[in-house]
Automatic annotation (TrEMBL):
Family affiliation: Belongs to the imidazoleglycerol-phosphate dehydratase family.
Pathway assigned in UniProt: Amino-acid biosynthesis; L-histidine biosynthesis; L-histidine from 5-phospho-alpha-D-ribose 1-diphosphate: step 6/9
Lineage: Bacteria, Bacillati, Bacillota, Bacilli, Bacillales
UniProt-annotated location(s): Cytoplasm
Catalytic class of the enzyme: lyase
Cross-referenced Gene3D superfamilies: Imidazole glycerol phosphate dehydratase, domain 1
Any one GO molecular function term: imidazoleglycerol-phosphate dehydratase activity
GO biological processes: L-histidine biosynthetic process
Full protein name: Imidazoleglycerol-phosphate dehydratase
Assigned keywords, A-Z: Amino-acid biosynthesis, Cytoplasm, Histidine biosynthesis, Lyase
Length: 193
């Protein structure tokens, strides 16, 4: 099956996410253009189907929309992975974007932890506050219960830096969710949910 859906409704946002790890349509509508672009790149590099409908309190800023989308995406990924039997579990990718080199290493371990090492010179790209990139990675890590180490090794263009991180995330997820065995990829025989 390898499909998952999740919804979240609060006073700050309404988010619906559908994930298909086997592929499918990619339709992203968050109301934040740069964020839509990043999520589309992520899904393309992960080779997953991803449908996101998000409505948030954008008259304030994009913070709640970005963070809540990450939370709902993580929950949908968790549902799609089930007990994680047969998956590779770990994924890593380094992506060059012109002058930038970005890296993401992750583990669908059941233990959420985020290391995010990137400094952005430009504080805003369109309607997207660049500090929200870290909020997205942290929200995704908590909700999908995975460890993520994301780093911009070097670079100067903020757009390239964030795009490199989202592409690397997608490629690392693709590697980690690939079915390469039979049992749960842990010597304990289970991965904490």
């Amino acid at each position: 099956m390898r499909r998952g859906t999740s919804e979240r409704v609060s006073s700050e946002s309404e988010i619906k996410v559908a994930v298909d790890l086997s592929g499918g349509p990619v339709e992203i509508k968050t109301g934040v253009g740069f964020f839509d672009h990043m999520l589309t790149l992520f899904a393309f590099q992960a080779r997953i189907g991803l449908v996101i409908e998000a409505k948030g309190d954008l008259w304030i800023d994009a913070h709640h929309t970005v963070e809540d989308t990450a939370i709902v995406l993580g929950a949908a990924l968790t549902e799609a992975l089930g007990d994680k039997a047969g998956i590779e579990r770990y994924g890593e990718s380094r992506v060059p974007m012109d002058e930038t080199l970005a890296s993401v290493v992750l583990d669908f371990s059941g233990r959420p932890y985020t290391v995010f090492l990137a400094e952005f010179k430009n504080p805003k790209l369109g309607d997207f506050d660049t500090e929200l990139a870290e909020e997205f990675f942290q929200g995704l890590s908590r909700s999908a219960r995975m460890t993520i180490h994301a780093q911009v090794l070097y670079g100067s263009n903020t757009h390239h830096m964030i795009e490199g991180l989202f592409k690397a995330l997608g490629r690392a997820v693709r590697q980690a969710v690939a079915v390469t065995g039979d049992g749960v990829p842990s010597t304990k025989g289970l991965i904490d949910q």
